[in-house]
Q: What sequence folds into this?
């Protein structure tokens, strides 16, 4: 059987498996080695994990740039070394009245561009090692704060010691750290009890492939669920090249556009048949495009046509 087309397989990752486990399962299920993921999900977390197949792995940084949405159940009055309930409890504290109004007020300073210190139990590198590898050895190192963007925090439900939050954030944001910092602001500590990623850019949980289907489904069925590469770029402007412009772009040269797509912006670039050639950036006048990432597109015509 031939290899599956390059594209994106959106799965609902199960609890208890790593994002790399999902990659390994997809490699076996699809019969292809070149598979990656766009945005790590912690092992206890579930939800949307885009898997990039074949040439689509070149799109990883662009998919990771998408906003992500999470539903987080946060338990207040407890602090752990992992900032979720899978970790070792470090402290407990009584939780005073946890009202919606008080929680919403506490969330406001965490909306916008904020500084976050990556947790020790994370995949961030430190001198050639992952932080979680050091953490498992009982070693803690100083970590520099990073700027992340939190677009919105909505309080969905509030109990006596728990609350459900809907969080929309940019890449590099740790919901676990957000929960920990929120607990610190309230003076009682907090940790994530349950985390579900409901969206990555245009990819939503209801449309994701169930974990059991990935692990047990027939290969033909899985391959049919692979979306075209440009499914991740649907909100970008599209440019269609003709004649010599296709050759120029394919050889790494800037190419003239038949119509302006706007200045200095990322665009999807296609040939006259609608085959995705790659990602480009338009010039200041929007009348030419220079290649940023070339894609050896599936010439069988399976790529989606530009809008």
A:
């Amino acid at each position: 059987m031939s290899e599956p087309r390059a594209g994106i397989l959106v799965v609902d990752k199960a609890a208890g498996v790593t994002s790399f486990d999902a990659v390994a399962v997809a490699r076996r299920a699809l019969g292809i080695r070149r598979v990656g993921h766009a945005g790590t999900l912690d092992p206890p977390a579930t939800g949307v994990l885009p898997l990039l197949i074949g040439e689509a792995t070149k799109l990883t940084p662009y998919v990771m740039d998408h906003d992500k949405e999470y539903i987080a159940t946060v338990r207040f009055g407890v602090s752990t070394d992992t900032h979720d309930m899978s970790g070792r409890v470090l402290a407990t504290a009584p939780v005073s009245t946890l009202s919606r109004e008080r929680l919403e007020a506490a969330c406001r300073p965490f909306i916008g561009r904020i500084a976050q210190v990556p947790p020790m139990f994370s995949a961030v590198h430190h001198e050639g090692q992952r932080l979680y590898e050091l953490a498992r050895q009982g070693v803690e190192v100083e970590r520099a704060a990073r700027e992340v963007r939190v677009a919105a925090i909505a309080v969905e439900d509030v109990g006596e010691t728990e609350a459900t939050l809907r969080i929309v954030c940019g890449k590099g944001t740790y919901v676990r750290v957000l929960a920990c910092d929120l607990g610190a602001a309230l003076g009682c500590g907090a940790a994530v009890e349950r985390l579900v990623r409901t969206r990555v850019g245009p990819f939503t949980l209801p449309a994701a492939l169930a974990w059991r289907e990935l692990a047990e489904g027939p290969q033909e069925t899985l391959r049919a669920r692979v979306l075209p590469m440009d499914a991740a770029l649907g909100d970008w402007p599209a440019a269609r090249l003709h004649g010599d412009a296709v050759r120029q772009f394919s050889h790494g040269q800037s190419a003239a556009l038949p119509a302006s797509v706007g200045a200095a912006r990322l665009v999807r670039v296609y040939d006259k048949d609608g085959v995705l050639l790659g990602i480009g950036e338009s010039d200041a006048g929007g009348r030419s495009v220079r290649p940023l990432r070339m894609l050896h597109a599936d010439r069988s015509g399976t790529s989606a046509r530009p809008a």
In short: The domain at 68-200 is CATH 3.30.2350.10 (Pseudouridine synthase). The longest strand covers residues 146-158.
